Fold this protein.
Amino acid sequence: MTSITDDVPMQSDNPSPVSDITRKVKVGWASGALGVAILMNSIGGLALFYMISVLHINPALAGGLIFVTKIFDVLSDPIVGRWSDSLRSGKSRRRPFLLWGALISAGSFALIFTTPLFDSEWMRAGYVFIAMLIYTLGYTIFNVPYMSMPSEMTEDYHERSSIHSYRMMFISVANLVAGALTPWILEKMGRLEWSSYALIGMAGAIIILLSMVNAWRTTADAKFTEAGTHTPRMLDELSHVWSNRHFIRLLGVKAAQLIGIASAAAAGMFFLLNVLQKDLNLMALTGLVVGPMSLLFAPVVVWISKRIGKSRTYMLAAANYVIITATWVIADANEPDWAYLLRMALVSFSASGNIIMAMSMLTDIINHDAKKTGVRREGVYTAFYSFTEKFTFAFGPLIVGLALGFAGFDKNIAPEAMQTEEIRQALLLGNCYIPVVMGFLAIFLLSGYKLKEEDLKNE
């Protein structure tokens, strides 16, 4: 077991071979991704629509509120990452955070989607702003230590991809549950009814709590590393992380991708209702398609990566996303439902590739750095990675909210009622233009990624 010291790595009292990681531990750890995916995807894909069309908050203000709450992560992410690196508990230094993060995350999700309908728009905005701050804190406390754990569980290059393929499976289940059930509830109970979102908030909070607590409970026997007797200073740690060229390149890839994905998520429901003139039953049907497709693609992605390498697999997934997303520019109300379903099914390959390869490459970078320096920095690396995820996801609602505001979108009428070329272009900005441009940037950055399997073996 490796220690956080400035010297040579220290051996564990109970060393375990790489092959000791069991399927039970993989599945148990990965189950936490169900709650994380519901938490993050619901906020990314539903919060802006909810704030504008149900809480009747100005589009630009709603997007701005979501964006501003992420500034809090500038401090919270590295602090939690550093804390989880240095905690000395006698057991896993990561697991205590999982339990507290689960409680705060579940509570915040319920708070957001039960925002009282105060008479004042500013009171509604203030309440949901505070609830969003609590959400960012809970997400950080759970996710930063959670995502640090795989780099401790194994040192095997391809086993890291396997671990994250299990995580992808639970994300697929979340897409199946939330992607199919949420729009069905909204269509049946009323997509502009406060009670619909309150039900989603309470049911989602229960699922989030159960899945995250299960990840905490089932990882008691997972391999872990201990904090050493001496911990490097925070500023030294930050400087070291930012000097790692492999990490900075991967961070750039992820940031570019997620800005595009977050923009598409924020615009997605508006685009379906306004541009395509479809109801949310089509989105529910899409959830039934995308979930199983993602489950199918997860092992395929791992298989491909063993043959052509992780970065090339990642590039393949990114290129697929760019091609499919570009076709939204020709979409209109006359196209058949199967065209929408086909796009979303094909994009699920990209989702599997992006998630599995990015996290597998991150754990490679962390372990490569630990072998070179003798210092374990899982929490610090993951903190910056997690911050990038959350901060870029805040750009989506901000961009779409501002674009809708400039296009003259009326928050007080049904989203499908106003059909102008300005609104269509505002939604295409989020659903097509930005994702395509950011996708090309991600592919360009990936082409220069140099850390390979042989580099890790030579350390």
Remarks:
- The two ends are 17 Å apart (CA to CA).
- The mean pLDDT is 83.
- The chain is about 75% helix and 0% strand.
